[in-house]
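Reminder to self: tokens first, then the designed residues, so the page reads top to bottom the way the pipeline ran.
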């Protein structure tokens, strides 16, 4: 219910927010200052994401997670997503020091980092996910839980990543502030998140893109407001040019509507549904 939703913006702290109807009957609020949209966190997050690794769960596909884990273990190769490659391209030298991934899942991104020389550390609120990561990366350092409760000392990492995580957290400022504290000076904080400025995210057909899974909806302006408030210096913000897999359409339909997808993404500047951010602790 709307009464459970905090009135003050979680990104910029403005009190100028209005009610907004989200998909599948959920209610949220939108900040009139920075454009941030948020909803109430109605369910226990740990239980919610442990269920993602349960073969009997709904909304997530257990076999997908298991296939990724088994494929990496047998082939010793990993296929990275474009937003992960964006991080790699912008970190020079890549593969130097300690890296922490928040929301490490089955260890797919850390697998690639280890192969490039990083000392790898991972955290996930799902104990089942961490078990799979440890099985794949026995030389890694893993913890189960929330980053705000982590046991690593301050100033431990040269880089911290959290791809497709921040949209799930109930207090993004506390989350970013904790990550900043764990970074060394000049350390890099990198994350990706769905882009609320893109029509494909505002109309996304999958239930796991909406509450209780996604409860924070960022645009470029709200990301800038949050990071400035946390005292991080933005190095780069990148949006993909136009939606493709984000549409969830069959491939033939995407090809048919490609000119329209390019028009909305590039000409109308709505992007492709993802934002990648690199920031620095100074």
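Designed residues (282 positions):
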């Amino acid at each position: 219910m709307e009464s459970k939703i905090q009135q003050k913006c979680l990104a910029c702290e403005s009190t100028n927010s209005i009610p907004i109807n989200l998909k599948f009957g959920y209610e949220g609020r939108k900040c009139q200052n920075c454009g941030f949209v948020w909803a109430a966190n109605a369910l226990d997050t740990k239980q919610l994401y442990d269920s993602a690794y349960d073969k009997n769960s709904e909304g997530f596909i257990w076999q997908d997670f298991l296939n990724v884990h088994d494929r990496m273990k047998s082939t010793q190769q990993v296929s990275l997503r474009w937003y992960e490659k964006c991080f790699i391209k912008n970190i020079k030298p890549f593969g130097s020091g300690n890296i922490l991934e928040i929301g490490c899942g089955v260890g797919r991104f850390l697998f690639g980092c280890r192969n490039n020389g990083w000392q790898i550390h991972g955290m996930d609120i799902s104990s089942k996910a961490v078990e799979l990561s440890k099985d794949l990366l026995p030389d890694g350092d893993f913890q189960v839980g929330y980053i705000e409760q982590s046991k690593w000392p301050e100033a431990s990492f040269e880089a911290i990543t959290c791809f497709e995580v921040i949209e799930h957290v109930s207090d993004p400022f506390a989350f970013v502030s904790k990550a900043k504290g764990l970074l060394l000076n000049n350390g890099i904080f990198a994350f990706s998140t769905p882009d609320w400025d893109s029509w494909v995210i505002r109309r996304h057909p999958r239930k796991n893109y909406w509450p209780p899974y996604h409860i924070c909806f960022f645009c470029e302006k709200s990301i800038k407001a949050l990071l400035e408030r946390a005292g991080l210096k933005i190095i780069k913000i990148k949006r993909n040019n136009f939606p493709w897999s984000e549409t969830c359409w069959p491939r033939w339909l995407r090809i048919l509507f490609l000119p329209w997808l390019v028009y909305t993404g590039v000409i109308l500047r709505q992007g492709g549904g993802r934002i990648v951010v690199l920031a620095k602790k100074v």
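The chain has one domain: 2-281.
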